[in-house]
Specification:
By secondary structure, this protein is mostly beta strands. It is built from no helices and 33 strands. It has strands at 5-8, 33-40, 47-55, 57-63, 66-69, 76-82, 93-100, 106-112, 118-121, 128-136, 141-142, 146-153, 158-161, 164-167, 172-180, 183-184, 189-194, 197-202, 207-212, 219-227, 237-244, 249-252, 256-259, 263-272, 282-287, 290-295, 300-306, 314-318, 321-324, 327-337, 346-355, 366-371, 376-383. β25 (282-287) and β26 form a beta hairpin.
Length: 384
């Protein structure tokens, strides 16, 4: 159905009994196709009824040979007109069949004609010479099959290989960019050759990459070459692949001390072995059975160190009173985790000494008074 709606607005009147209207149209009012007729009330513009009108006829198909590069964006155009009136046949369908003369591959597509009776489309086939057959896809429209030729030529491509860098112990990613006429190529393969070995990678959205393992720290040279079924083969292009030595790191922090129930901020330095600041990554801190993380910025990270809970210092009740350890030491594990492959991870264990401090603030042996049911008594807090 071509979707055209033709309204008959001649139903003027106030009668409420059924009436039989038989609209008539002059010859050649409609081009061949399928239409929807709508009966509309003259007074309130309400559609009272609809019917399908099928108009058969003969169409003339006009098309030209096609000759362009693959993926050029140039379109093929076909037009259908009514043989009797010369009017464009709109909103009908046409079948286009592509057959490759060499491989015998066939691709069939159906396209909708626009308001000018035309269909324009990019050929849905690859490079080569194709026989193109146009025929009507509408049962009410007769048309002779029209045969044309589509010649789709392989265009040249431009390939660029990139200088890439990686660090020893990791695979290096070779990279090439492939374009044609300024557009990204999205097919074919790139062959990489490096260190006496050959690798291939598919081109996706204009880019081909391949990870390879290189054991020595040095600068390698590699070549890239493109090959695809719809594009011309490229020439070889060269680029460098640089393998570097990883940089050792160190964590700089002194042993710390803090009172029970307290905490403080501590700056941790993350440096290279030669003393330069490490600019990124993160630290992992494991303390008192808990693990936290923090960022490394410009060679520094901030950590929070805490003392033990006061009850962790408690030894028990002795003849000297309530007895507490004066100090208690815990080990804190620190690990630097690199963000990039440039740096190596490093570890350090520091001691954090928790120093006793009573809830009253005193840090040495002292006495407290407390009240029982019937009396006040004195007891000793012994710090040993």
């Amino acid at each position: 159905m071509n979707g055209n709606i033709v309204f008959n607005k001649e139903l003027k009147g106030t009668e409420r009994t059924a009436r039989d209207y038989r609209p008539s149209f002059e010859k050649n009012t409609f081009a061949p196709g399928t239409y929807v007729l709508g009966a509309v009330n003259y007074d309130d513009n309400v559609v009272m009824d609809t019917a399908v009108l099928r108009v058969s006829g003969t169409a003339v198909i006009n098309a030209n040979d096609y000759n362009s590069y693959y993926n050029s964006g140039a379109k093929m155009t076909v037009k259908m007109t009514d043989q009797a009136t010369g009017k464009p046949i709109t909103s009908s369908y046409i079948t286009v069949k592509f057959t490759n003369k060499k491989t015998k591959k066939t691709v069939t597509k159906t396209y909708l004609m626009n308001s000018n009776g035309q269909a324009s489309f990019t050929p849905p086939v690859g490079a080569g010479t194709w026989t193109v057959e146009y025929s009507s896809a509408d049962a009410d429209i007769n048309a002779n099959v029209v045969q044309k030729t589509a010649t789709i030529t392989k265009p040249a491509v431009k390939i660029k290989a990139f200088k890439v860098t990686e660090y020893k112990g990791f695979k290096i990613k070779l990279k090439a960019k492939v374009t044609s006429g300024g557009k990204k190529v999205n097919e074919g393969k790139v062959t990489f050759k490096i260190n006496g070995k050959t690798y291939t990678a598919a081109v996706k959205n204009g880019i081909a990459t391949k990870k390879v393992k290189l054991s020595k720290v040095k600068t390698y040279k590699y070549t890239s070459k493109f090959k695809g079924s719809n594009y011309k083969d490229s020439k070889k292009v060269k680029a460098k692949a640089v393998m570097k030595k990883r940089v050792k790191t160190k964590i700089v922090i002194k042993d710390q001390s803090v009172y029970t129930g307290s905490s403080k901020k501590v700056t941790i330095k993350v440096l290279t072995k030669s003393g330069k600041k490490v600019k990124n990554g993160k630290i992992k801190i494991t303390s008192h059975g808990e693990t936290t993380y923090g960022p490394v910025k410009n060679g520094k990270a901030i950590a929070i160190v805490s003392g033990f809970n006061i009850m962790k210092h408690f030894k028990g009740f002795t003849k000297n009173g309530e007895t507490y350890k004066k100090s208690k030491t815990a080990k804190v594990k620190i690990k630097y985790i690199p963000k990039s492959h440039k740096y190596k991870a490093s570890k350090k264990t520091v001691k954090v000494t928790s120093k006793f401090k009573c809830l009253c603030g005193k840090t040495s042996t002292h006495y407290h008074y407390t009240q029982g049911y019937y009396y006040v008594y004195k007891y000793k807090i012994a710090v040993v």
